[in-house]
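Quick sanity check, Pumilio homolog 24:
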Amino acid sequence: MAAKKQDAGNTKKRKRLDTKTQESPSHSKTSNLAASKKHKPHSVAKDKKEQKPTLTGRERRLHAKELADARKKKRKRHYTLEQELARLWEKMRCREIAKEDRAKLVTEAVQKMKGKIPEIAGSHISSRVLQTCVKHCSQSERDAVFEELSPHFLNLAYNAYAVHLVKKMLDNASKKQLAGFISTLHGHVAPLLRHMVGSVVVEHAYELANAAQKQELLLELYSTELQLFKDLVSLKESRLLDVMSKLKLQKGSVLRHMTSVIQPILEKGIVDHSILHRVLLEYFSIADKSSVTDIIQQLSSPLIVRMIGTRDGAKIGTLCVKYGNAKERKKIIKGLKGHVDKTAYHQYGCMVLVCILSVVDDTKLITKVIIRELQSVLKALVLDKNGRRPLLQLLHPNSSRYFSPDDLATLSLSIPSLSLKDQSESGSLTETTNVSLGDNESEEDMAVDEVNKDKISVDDSDLAESGKKNPLVRRQELLIKSGLADSLLDVCIESVGELLRSNFGKEILYEVATGGSDGIMRPTLDDKINSLHNAVASLAAMPKPADSQEEHVLENFHSSRTIRKLILESPNFASTLWEKAFKGKSELWAHGHSCKIVSAFLESPDTKVQKLVEKELQPLIDRGILKNPKLKEQANQ
């Protein structure tokens, strides 16, 4: 029975196998056709591979070993050369080494590097050796290095280690070599400026270039057409507007090209370079309102701190403050936090602080961020040429006595597309005019005492060139309510002698002692101002020193002129000084620099002062020791 069941099971399995074998031929044919269609490209590729000579496993291993040995020998040779150069470098960079010995070592190192200089320049180890050689080698050796590097300058400009060598080569390059290098940058200026390392090379070349070479670098950033027609533009057309009018370029195409150049640079935060600042100023001169506001919005951040270190960068910072809205101005001020003292000492950066103090209405924020930092270094600022300017702007705004014509022109800069509406609406409210970016900024007639005073746009307050707050109220809040004036008086009283004898400190002392422009410090601080008058008078009342090394305050060049101005300006000070220092001693001081101080009492516009001194000084006039001021006036007439 079991055998029968097993035979029956086997027959069933055979039947199943037979049915499968009957169905399989048709199915296999269709599947083979599909597979052949589907994998046809692979089969072609396989055929192509089969055409190449096949290597056995042993041959492949031998070939790989040969390549590895070649790489190993190359690394060994390079490592050996680096070791030799490092040994020479350790000797040549010693300060105590003689010039002749150093020259021999440099020559030996240059000979070893010959033919491999481009490769060495990009190495993080041996590039330093090459830099030292370029610094100390002879001119002929330096020219040879320059010649070997010249075909590779563009590639080296992108290398983080080679960039220092390229800069050193440019520093020592002749006029012909520098011109050749700048010509190699043609067509690559914009890509290099978008690169963190390459932008440093372009900026260094721009700083070393003459006016024509600078224009050559700039033209490439203005328009693609200018790359072709750069020879048609002379130095007379230094401004973009002049170039466009001469070559009849379309404003739209220039704007599109400049936007495509500027935007990637700003997005990467590469804003430190003066060539970009020049391009931005030219862009502002032709751009429409929306384009300018977009750029101002991007720059209204801590980025602005990195820009205000150049002349054009400070102008950009000033324009961002003037035309930025309240939110953007707040970002700029907060971005300056921690950098206010350094900015105040900077030749150009201090003008951005001056603009903020003149324009921004949020005096609480300015007091918190800027005034507090200024107070911490107040004495040093008073004695510094640039640091005193923000203080003088609060004491005597826009004074041509303290600000040069260029400084006043910077404060009065305007953006044409944003200021047209302001000028039409507020032109009747003020006699001052703005200096447009398209105008010549170096003329002396632009140096006016009151620049952009109460310049407010009625409808578009976000783009107003100055705040809505009354300038006098703003000054009182920043100077009096913040406590800055009180601190200034303390510094002046404590260091009265040092400030009077200082070339820059005397100006702050003079403005504080007179109470500031418009009498802003009076009557709130009258008591302290009188204390300062007494401090100056007490110093003047001291006898002449026996030691000739230190001049008396009445005989010093700076202090004598400051005291003379104070006598003419402040009758209260003149009376105090006469009573404490000159009464009964006027003949002693009627010689030298102090003679001008004694004469100032007679020239005072206050009749009370003249009557006070007339009895004692008239005999000196009669004896010819002093000149009669009335005769001077008649002679001048």
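Posting the structure with no commentary besides this: The chain has 38 helices and two strands.
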